[in-house]
Amino acid sequence: MSTRLLVATLFAALLGGGGLSIPLHAQSGPDAPTSEAAWTGSWEGLLPVPGAELRVVLHLDRTDSGLTGTMDSPDQGASDIPLGDITATDDSLTLDVPSIAGRYEGVRTAPDTVQGTWIQGDIEPNLTLARTDTPSQVNRPQQPEAPFPYATEDVTFATIAEEGHTLAGTFSHPDANEPVPAVVLISGSGPHTRTGETAGHETLTVLADHLTRQGIAVLRYDERGQGESESTLRGATTPMLADDVRGALTYLQDRSEVDAERISLVGHSEGGLIAGYLGARHPELVDVLVLVGSPGIPGDAILGDQLASSAERAGMQSSRVNAQVEVQQRVFDILKQDADSTTIVSDLRAFIAETSGLAEGEMVEGEIRSLMDPWFRFFVQYDPTSDLQQLTQPVLALLGERDQQVRPAMNAEPLEAALHTAPTSTYDVVVLDALNHLFQTAETGAPSEYAQIEETMAPDVLDRIATWILEHSADRRSADE
């Protein structure tokens, strides 16, 4: 999902896991020259990357210890990235950005203009900075701000898992005179806190705010090892993450504000897989299912389609695309074979040697460790169809027309076919125009757009989810009565 942004690994850790509020680090020594004062303020420029230009903003300040500063990338939803060593003279500026292994070297060509080079890995694009009194900012107009017309509470609950651990989250509920329907929000793959932050968008926060305003109680939580939750995501498979969601469902059943017979699941991407997995195995716990950008095909097919989509966007010839997809599928076939781990590792090592010429070394071992990760092996093999075909609950499956990660051309028909054969009498598979994988209104749907779009989630999507839960949870309870 990366573009060579401030390139490849650039903001991957920052956008996925927070950590942007690290204290600033003063770098220049106590005898810093007075010329440093001329550099204080905000400087902005456009960094050219393949297929785009990214805004870069430096904020420099002078203290008794010398120059300090932070860096923003508004188009990636990242801000307050600490700067490291800063060296300034009358006409030159050099600085490091340790967290992304970046460096800038520039020369002042006018009082308010610096021409220089951004250095990161094997790239060195030009970057011209100009002083500005109105630096670009990350704009997220849908981000909820207090005071809220509902109650919120930080909570903890025990997961239903063999190892046992406690997860932390936020429970929001409307002020009502009687119990209300409730939902558990399930984020997609990768480490997430209760905000569901992706590319600078707090998707779960925005969704929870909308649902609660519509009269639905919401529980969202920090995943294992994230935020204030215990344990770790390392080695956690999709079924193990489903045990965490079971803990959340059980917790809501004991809340007096919640109608225990009307507790639903809303899952995004892999979160939708978890929702379907649980709905099939524990129908007594789940009243309604909403699958948002959730696959309808096996994991290896999803990853193959993602690779093809990414290569096509990069302009790769179809013959090369097909060759890469074929190589990847051969790796997946090895992972999916019914054999012990020793045999699978041996087969992987042999295939890597065959295709790359590398038979050993840390690079090979690292690749094998990644492929043998329990979560990845389960994902590659898991076919959601078998669980979708068992669902008895009302199911709403939403897909974005421009989604490049779970493309509707590959997933809409399998979702429709599976739900058509399921016991449920109420389902709908909807492809929504112009929306990407985050369900933002998008131009192309490419992941590189996510942070550049101000909208966090299309209002129509928010309304559809709330309406489905309110209407169909009530319908199901009436039918049971």
Low-confidence stretches: 1-34
Helix content: 25-40%
CATH topology of the largest domain: Rossmann fold
What's the CATH architecture name of the largest domain? 3-Layer(aba) Sandwich
Taken as a percent bin, the fraction of beta residues is: 25-35%
Largest sheet: 9 strands, antiparallel
- How big is the Rg? 25 Å
| Number of strand segments | 19
What distance lies between the first and last C-alpha atoms, to the nearest angstrom?
47 Å
| Quaternary form | single chain
Q: What form results from the Cα inertia axes?
A: globular
Tally of contiguous helical segments: 12
Could you provide a short overview of the structure?
32% of the residues lie in helices and 26% in strands. It contains twelve helices and 19 strands.
Topology record:
Elements: H1 12-17, E1 41-49, E2 52-63, E3 66-73, E4 78-82, E5 86-88, E6 92-97, E7 102-110, E8 113-120, E9 126-132, E10 151-158, E11 166-173, E12 180-186, E13 197-198, E14 201-202, H2 203-213, E15 217-221, H3 238-253, E16 258-268, H4 270-281, E17 289-292, H5 299-313, H6 318-336, H7 341-356, H8 362-371, H9 374-381, H10 385-388, E18 395-400, H11 408-420, E19 427-432, H12 459-480
Parallel strand pairs: 12-15, 12-16, 16-17, 17-18, 18-19
Antiparallel strand pairs: 1-2, 1-9, 2-3, 3-4, 5-6, 6-7, 7-8, 8-9, 10-11, 11-15, 13-14
Helix pairs in contact: 3-4, 5-6, 5-9, 6-7
Keywords:
disordered N terminus; 8-stranded mixed β-sheet; alpha+beta; Lipocalin; 481 residues; Rossmann fold; 9-stranded antiparallel β-sheet; 19 strands
